[in-house]
Hints:
By secondary structure, the protein is α/β, with parallel strands linked by helices. It has helices spanning 7-14, 98-109, 126-134, 151-159, 168-178, and strands at residues 2-3, 26-30, 52-54, 66-68, 74-77, 83-86, 114-117, 138-142, 164-166.
Amino acid sequence: MGASAGGSAALAQLLPRLPPTFPLAVIIVRHLHPLQAGLPFAYQTRDWALPVKEADEKEPVRPGWIYFAPPNYHLLIESDRTFALSIDERVNYVRPSIDVLFESAAEVYGAGLVGVILSGANQDGAAGLRRIKERGGLAVVQDPATAEVALMPQAALAMAQIDYVLPPAEIGALLARCGTACLNV
């Protein structure tokens, strides 16, 4: 999932919908200040059924967990399905970049991946979501009419073939309903 400006409100509506038996890992890139410490949304996680943590270098991606990209690091998925952190140049003026996560994950998971773009004020994530679709994955975008800042969802709609355009709570309900059945694996 990718979120930027207005993304905390969208995640607060979406993530509580995921049940404790949710069969997929949830990996989130949220554009934050580079020096922000600690997990974003820590105050909200009590409403979430899944455990939450910041992704660590070489940590295996485990189903049923919510992972956040650390501030000021790109988060990638390696071919052995572990996390990698990078301080490479900013992409779309940000680090972490949603595109970096989505493009690396698309190469590893292919049709077994769901990409979600939420509220935000730039175009980050649109190219990555297009790559997810090219590899057979599912593309979901927050309805721009429900986004606090609609630019990121609009950019994704313009660049990629989208499977679902929904408000955040309905995205959470969709994911909870279908789990791995959403995927073409």
